[in-house]
Amino acid sequence: MRPGLLAGRSVAVVHEWFSAHGGSEDVFLAIAGLVPHATRYVLWAEPDAPLDGLDLRQSWLARTPLRRSKALALPVMPLAWRTLGRPAPDVVISSSHAFAHTVKLGTPATTRHLSYVHSPARYLWSPAFDGRGANPVLALPRRLLRGVDVRASRHVHAYAANSVEVRDRIRRYWGRDAAVVHPPVDTDFFSTPAPDGPAGDRDYLLGVGRWIPYKNFDLIIEIASRAKLPLVIAGGGPQEAALRRAAQASNAPITFEHRPSRDRLRALYQGARALLFPAHEDFGIVPVEAQAAGTPVVGLRRGGLCETVVDGETGFLVDSLDPGDYLAAIARLPEIDRDRVRAHATTFSTDRFRDRMTGWVADATR
């Protein structure tokens, strides 16, 4: 953010819960870094969150057992955001994937509220995307909370969405328009050759992400099995045991990399034949990281991949979850120019995010 922007104004940057690592946390920190003098608020910080050097003010939810269950805490999150009891800043910038956009510090006449949205709460508005929204605890309050979500956000002056997909949801669910500001991806890091070299010679397929149902890692295993190609699965999550059982029954050699370091992940990207990504994501930082490493993406033609992958040039997009369709795309991988893949990834760099975010903040706070 250029010198002087928001200088002389009090600013609050707010986010939902702060966990060990995630794309939304990275965006929150990037936004906070653009306004170093801002006060930073979160509902609570997870026990394993890296807080060294971070000055985060946590809500009263951090002192309750509810912090241990997002599903149980969800109905009271709007109340928590409305009862921070802090002085009203001149500007609020919220980083929201649940209810942070409903935070109200000051009145619309005195406080300018800008909200960067990762997605309207999936738990409420699009529970089919992942199983968390199907929790029986949320079945009864969901309709009520949708109304609260809309009413409690009427004071927001300007929205930015992390993708066209999310912009369209904001229009559909909240009846508001939004600018599109893609999240920052450290493309410089992933395009720089790994110190110890790539993890392979483009001889294996790769799956990266949290091992949860909507990421479709079971499908990734089936695709590799049918292709009879080695597969590396990097990440971690509650599906680990089930995925390891599926891997044992596979016709392909499958290796698990549990929560690899950033350096190791770079080496894995740089050694892979392709990233398999058959998931419907709001944006999807992993496919951009892979492309920065020169690795094409074979993924589902849904959501953010329609914005981050150029079909036929930086990867291939598939219209179904049929493993056979992915095999056809894998067979076409020699057509891809890996230099073109790397160049495309730079359009989602951290510098691009800073420029776009700076422009949006400047326009919305005039």
List keywords for this structure.
366 residues; alpha/beta; six-stranded parallel sheet; 13 strands; globular
Shape: globular
Strand order of the largest sheet: 3-2-1-4-5-6-7
* Total helical segments: 16
Average predicted confidence as pLDDT: 91
**CA radius of gyration:** 21 Å
Provide the β-strand percentage band: 15-25%
Secondary-structure-based class equals alpha/beta
Multimeric status of the protein: single chain
Number of strands: 13
N- to C-terminal separation? 15 Å
Low-confidence stretches: none
Instruction: Give the topology string: H per helix, E per strand.
Output: EHEEHHEEHHHEHEHEHEHEHEHEHEHHH
Give the proportion of residues in helices.
25-40%
Largest sheet: 7 strands, parallel
Commentary on this structure:
The structure is a single chain. The protein has 366 residues and is an alpha/beta fold. It is 36% helix and 16% strand. The chain has 16 helices and 13 strands. Helix 9 packs across helix 14 and helix 12 packs across helix 15. The radius of gyration is 21 Å and the shape is globular. The model has no long low-confidence stretch (mean pLDDT 91).
